[in-house]
Specification:
The complex is a heterodimer.
Chain A: H1 5-8, H2 13-20, H3 34-44, H4 46-68, H5 100-136, H6 138-152, H7 156-167, H8 172-180, H9 185-198, H10 202-209, H11 214-222, H12 227-250, H13 262-270, H14 278-305
Helix pairs in contact in A: 3-14, 4-5, 4-14, 5-6, 5-8, 5-9, 5-12, 5-13, 5-14, 7-8, 10-11, 12-13, 12-14, 13-14
Chain B: E1 4-15, E2 18-30, E3 35-39, H1 46-54, E4 62-71, E5 74-75, H2 81-87, E6 92-95, H3 109-120, H4 125-138, H5 144-147, H6 157-169, E7 175-179, H7 187-204, E8 207-212, H8 215-221, E9 224-229, E10 232-238, H9 239-244, H10 249-256, E11 311-314, E12 317-319
Parallel strand pairs in B: 3-8, 3-9, 6-7, 7-8
Antiparallel strand pairs in B: 1-2, 1-4, 4-5, 9-10, 10-12, 11-12
Classes of the chains: A mainly alpha, B alpha/beta.
């Protein structure tokens, strides 16, 4: 028998618990919980950690840089027109002589803001639709799913263009609506599938047996258990939405100048891509980096939050 | 008047293959403070009976097609869902077979207990917490106040069943339905949980229905025993009467299938099994459902064509068989079967 010397000098177990935990979970072991386990699995995925790091840096850059930037993002100065990257303008300047670095950060705010906003809207609609369908079940579920099947045929970008045409102007909120209105179907299906499996759990029946009402069963016992899947879904939806926003801005349907978004900046560089390629390259690379990071993060999160799917 | 009066209850499952008569016209009553044991093999309708009382049968495919469940003056079959929800947990509580899956793994047990209390009583979080600690102490969980913040995975099976019992008792129900409360536990824990249930029944002055396939469990805990077979009541008697003078051949066979630690009289020796399988409950024949497996029945008997009625063979001893044991005075198993 191996005796750990530190083991021998330990005070009695009960005493130690008293000193360690002040009234909280009386546990002699370090409590393992879902999020800590998930974090442990996430950091093992090097690509996901790197992607997460880049993602955070990118977000911080977009949020913080415009505050400290010495340049006015909208100050037109044709003397500085289309300068290549230099020390004073690390990303160069655009056709109007505006600092590209500052504008990229500002454009990132818009692109990511719309991206996250639309993703959240997609998830909210998806959760509402999917959980009602899955929870009620039976004929309603059947009907709601057939409606979804029909809507699935809608091509999402043309639909977004039509929505923007109906609104007539493109602002932050109209962009969010346009991008989410035809892309929540998958998340609704995911949530419905989750709810249907979860509601067969014994603890749901046990909760009903002590009088839990339906909203409590749904809100307390079912939806929190779908959280992991939803977090993954955020990062899976994000690239598509950001790409959609970039596309709409690129074809001139995005938010109006002088506000920038990455797609719009790329559009500005389109005509001068031979003479000043950095004008189209910088926002394009920002979009590509963000999407790549989101994909790797989604991958890492899936391994971390749903370890059973790892093997397949 | 009895606390719970079930009359002619029939719950059928409407499936693609046909109508499954899971519970087919059963009647019984439970007095205040009394324990009723329901025994029978898997699939005989024990759990569906319990879920029908609670109004928790999966609809569709199941449906209560007839009968009434009168609890404290209200017919639960007719009661609107909203009132039924208020009743569950407060007046009738239920504990289930598998404590490993009946607690939500993502909520602390403190949350799960206090939620039930706050669902039925208008009390503050602190008061609910105090009550939860009392309950955990009552079901003998050590260091109750510290364990309130623990998640279910930190509890063993027996402990979780105690937590389930604590949740069930949190609102002082008048009736506790225990659906195979000890089946998933090992034998020593079983005994402890059964003792605990019996103590709590006394101290809380509840009536209890214990559903089990284990004759040993009901022998200890129940006052009355209801033996179910293929969705019907085949025998209903006080516990001592049933164990001393079983009348239905099925009950006799069940008791014969019990392992005996102390060999005594006719049941010493090998364990006996009941030959055959329970009948399909889709379109059962209009005959005694036990007839194909009954050692006393043959094709010429009335019970092969007519369903025997439930009759009171002695005072408070009801049996549904054409061949009750007392009418084979002195006969041993199997000797009556013609060659």
């Amino acid at each position: 028998m191996v005796i750990n010397p530190r083991e021998a000098t330990r005070p009695p177990l009960v005493e130690e618990e008293r000193t360690l935990q002040s009234g909280a979970a009386g546990a002699p072991l370090r409590q393992s919980n879902l999020w800590r386990d998930a974090w442990g699995r996430y950091v093992r995925n090097k690509a996901a950690v790197l992607a997460g790091g880049i993602f955070v840096v990118l977000v911080l850059f977009c949020v913080v840089w415009p505050i400290f930037s010495p340049y006015d993002p909208n100050a037109v100065d044709f003397a500085l027109k289309s300068q290549a990257p230099s020390l004073s303008h690390p990303f160069g300047t655009d056709n109007f002589g505006r600092d590209m670095m500052t504008r990229t950060a500002l454009g990132g705010r818009v692109s990511m803001g719309i991206g996250f906003g639309a993703t959240l809207a997609i998830l909210l609609i998806g959760v509402a639709y999917g959980s009602i369908s899955g929870f009620v079940g039976g004929r309603l579920d059947n009907g709601m799913m057939r409606v979804l099947d029909t809507l699935y045929g809608l091509p999402y970008l043309p639909f977004a263009i039509i929505i923007l045409a109906i609104f007539g102007n493109a602002s932050f909120w109209t962009m969010v609506v346009a991008l989410s209105v035809a892309s929540w179907f998958t998340s609704a299906r995911i949530v419905r599938g989750q709810i249907i499996t979860l509601k067969e759990n014994d603890y749901v029946r046990a909760a009903k047996a002590v009088g839990a009402r339906w909203y409590r069963v749904l809100g307390r016992h079912l939806l929190p258990n779908t959280l992991g899947v939803l977090i993954i879904a955020i990062f899976l939806e994000l690239p598509g939405v950001i790409l959609g926003e970039a596309f709409l801005s690129f074809i001139g349907l995005g938010i109006s100048p002088p506000d920038a978004s990455w797609g719009q900046m790329a559009n500005d560089g389109r005509t001068v891509y031979r003479t000043s390629p950095h004008i189209i390259a910088v926002p394009s690379m920002a979009i590509a980096t963000l999407i790549l990071c989101a994909n790797f993060i989604a991958d890492g999160l899936r391994d971390a939050l749903d370890p059973r799917t790892r093997e397949t | 008047m009895a606390l719970l009066e079930v009359t002619d209850l029939a719950t059928h499952f409407f499936t693609r293959e046909g109508v499954v008569r899971a519970v087919d016209g059963i009647s019984f009553s439970v007095e205040r403070g009394e324990t009723l044991g329901i025994v029978g093999e898997s699939g005989c309708g024990k759990s569906v009976t319990a879920l029908s009382i609670m109004g928790l049968i999966p609809r569709p495919p199941a449906k209560i097609v007839s009968g009434s469940v009168v609890f404290d003056g209200d017919d639960l079959v007719e009661l609107p869902e909203k009132q039924l929800e208020d009743l569950r947990g407060r007046e009738i509580a239920m504990i289930f077979q598998d404590p490993m899956t009946c607690l939500n793994p993502t909520l602390t047990i403190g949350t799960q207990i206090t939620e039930t209390i706050r669902r039925h009583y208008d009390v503050s979080k602190q008061d609910a917490r105090k009550k939860a600690i009392e309950l955990l102490e009552e079901v003998q969980i050590p260091r109750a106040s510290e364990r309130l913040g623990d998640y279910p995975h930190r509890f063993s099976g027996g402990m979780r069943q105690r937590v389930m019992i604590a949740i069930a008792l949190s609102c002082d129900p008048k009736l506790l339905i225990a659906d195979e409360p000890t089946t998933a536990l090992d034998v020593t824990v079983q005994a402890a949980v059964l003792d605990l249930l019996d103590d709590l029944r006394r101290s809380h002055d509840m009536a209890m229905i214990i559903i089990t396939h284990d004759m040993g469990v009901v022998a200890e805990a129940a006052d009355d025993i209801l033996v179910m077979y293929a969705g019907q009541v085949v025998e209903h008697a006080p516990v001592l009467e049933l164990f001393d003078h079983p009348e239905h051949p099925y009950t006799e066979a069940l008791l014969g299938a019990l392992p005996q630690l102390e060999g005594e009289g006719i049941r010493a020796g090998r364990l006996t099994a009941i030959p055959g399988r329970p009948p399909d409950l889709i379109n059962p024949p209009a005959a005694c459902r036990f007839a194909p497996r009954c050692p006393y029945a043959n094709e010429n008997d009335s019970c092969a064509t007519v369903m025997p009625e439930l009759r009171e063979i002695r005072k408070e001893h009801w049996v549904r068989s054409a061949h009750p044991m007392s009418e084979h005075a002195g006969s041993l198993r199997g000797t009556e079967v013609p060659a």
